[in-house]
Amino acid sequence: MLDEVRRRLHPRRLRNSGKRAKQALRKAGLAPKGPVYGRLADVGRAVPIPPRARVVLSTALLRRPGRISVPIDRMLLGAQGGWTAREFAERTDDLLWPSTRVIDGPHVDLLRLAGSTDEEILASPYGRMARRCVDAGGHYFGARTNSEIVAVARRFLSGDRDDERRPAQSGRSDPILVAPIRGSDHYQVLDGHHRLARAFARGETTARVVTKWMPVTTPLQDLLLRMSWLDGTKELYQPIDGPELAKSWTTVRRCTDRLEKMTKLLAERGVTGSYLDVASCYGWFVAEMGHAGFDAQGLERDPLAVPLGRAAYGLREGQIGTGDAVELLAYSDQTYDVVSCFSLLHHFVLGRGSVGPEALVKLLDRATGKVLFIDTGQENEAWFRTSLAGWNAGTIASFLRQHTTFTEITDLGPDDDAHPPYADNYGRHLFACIRT
Ligand SMILES: C[S@@+](CC[C@H](N)C(=O)[O-])C[C@H]1O[C@@H](n2cnc3c(N)ncnc32)[C@H](O)[C@@H]1O
Q: From which residue to which does the signal peptide run (predicted)?
């Protein structure tokens, strides 16, 4: 059957012309490219312009006139300690800082701590945020020592913060300043975290803010847009919970359906121990199998999976190894009780791997102690109807029987990912290859 699939393959069919056109446009700078865009926005703010000119530029040209009403729960944490949100996230190794809602952030948290001791304030998220500013080489509203940080916090708790009282030159109070986040209905706070936190604590749901014209991007958006597999598309291959992703990012694979089938089978068979996800992307399965009690690791070609997995799922340093699966598996004798490999095999069937699909499953077989979970693109999917004709649940099961040493190959049924915009794709069968 595989020979039949290979005969049908024509190099031109393998090309995805839409994707290539988009790539070309991006390379030519004619299509938006998140990371560059996000950095340009920051660089613009860092240009050394005389202070008076900067104020004129910022107030008269870069800000939209008037104030608008924005729901407070759509405001995300932003600039701190004189750094842009991105700089603060990078300097303090907290990629998700600009992806955190103000209402879940340290300022709102501190308002719940009224009456607390200095030690409690310093140990709170607010105290730690201030300390991070200092440790990164800056200060927090002029504070550098612990007692100065506590004084700043106490001024905020007593409603006596400078930035809330300071009258603007016009005689009106300084506005809360925000920037729209690209591809999102959320805003990044540039100035006014304390005022927003206090408004939220008073039970207000919206705030009047001044907004910049130019949208910003978050580091999370930038990393996702740079992942090679996603090729600049606003897609999440595995679920990531980021408020600024909710509006225009599509979660391609819901993943929970496959995980449920895996954990059920493993529980029935009493399998525990170590787990390796080959081609793990940024590690949703690694994280979930870790929560299920497995010593979980991932292996992924794209190095950006590492910072994404750490930020999005709290994966440990080294939990995702990076490199080519074929090379890494070929040079390792290590085995894992459970191995998974999702949506990789068909790329080898289509001739895009460094070896044939038989060699890939042999390597997976060798790395597996007890159970291998595997799925692959199939002929029922619109985008593979011709190129993978004949590659279906029946022929895949035969292929696995023929090229591996497992004693049992069980078809656990199709995934639940055939929904718009991919209603004509997916429905890939999950196979459990078991050694009894
Ligand atoms: C279609 S995605 C599947 C992601 C994940 N397995 C899932 O199903 O949720 C394919 C992933 O495999 C990775 N990949 C492709 N070829 C690889 C290789 N030779 N070695 C390691 N990873 C590879 C890609 O970077 C991408 O993250």
A: none
Q: What residue owns the CA closest to ligand 1's atom 8?
A: 342
Centre of ligand 1 from the C-alpha of residue 185, in Å: 30
Q: Does residue 253 line the site of ligand 1, with CB under 6 A? A: yes
pLDDT in tens, 186-226: 999 999 999 999 999 999 999 999 999 889 999 999 999 99
Length of the chain: 436
Which parts of 192-346 are beta strand (E)?
206-211, 235-236, 250-251, 274-278, 295-300, 320-322, 336-342
Query: Domain 2-25+253-434: which topology?
Result: Rossmann fold (3.40.50)
Confidence of residue 21 (pLDDT cuts 50, 70, 90): very low
Taking CA atoms only, the protein residue closest to ligand 1 atom 2 is 343
Domain ranges of the chain: 2-25+253-434, 34-220
> pLDDT digits over 381-430, tens only?
999 999 999 999 999 999 999 999 999 999 999 999 999 989 999 999 99
Could you tell me if 329 and 266 are in contact, meaning their C-beta atoms sit under 8 angstroms apart? no
**Position 407: which residue type?**
T
* 115 pLDDT tier (thresholds 50, 70, 90): confident
State which ligand 1 atom lies nearest to the alpha carbon of 325: 20
409 and 396 in contact (C-beta within 8 Å)? no
Tell me if 342 CB under 6 Å of ligand 1.
Answer: yes
**Residue 150 backbone dihedrals phi, psi, to 5 degrees:** -60, -40
pLDDT at 33 over 90: no
Our answer on whether the CB atom of 348 is closer than 6 Å to any ligand 1 atom is no
- By alpha-carbon position, which residue is closest to atom 13 of ligand 1? 279
Query: Which residue out of 344, 364, 381 has the highest number of ligand 1 atoms within 8 Å of its CB and is therefore the one to mutate?
Result: 344
**Cα-to-centroid distance, 183 and ligand 1 (Å):** 26
Mean pLDDT (the chain, rounded): 88
* 280 CA to centre of ligand 1 in angstroms: 6
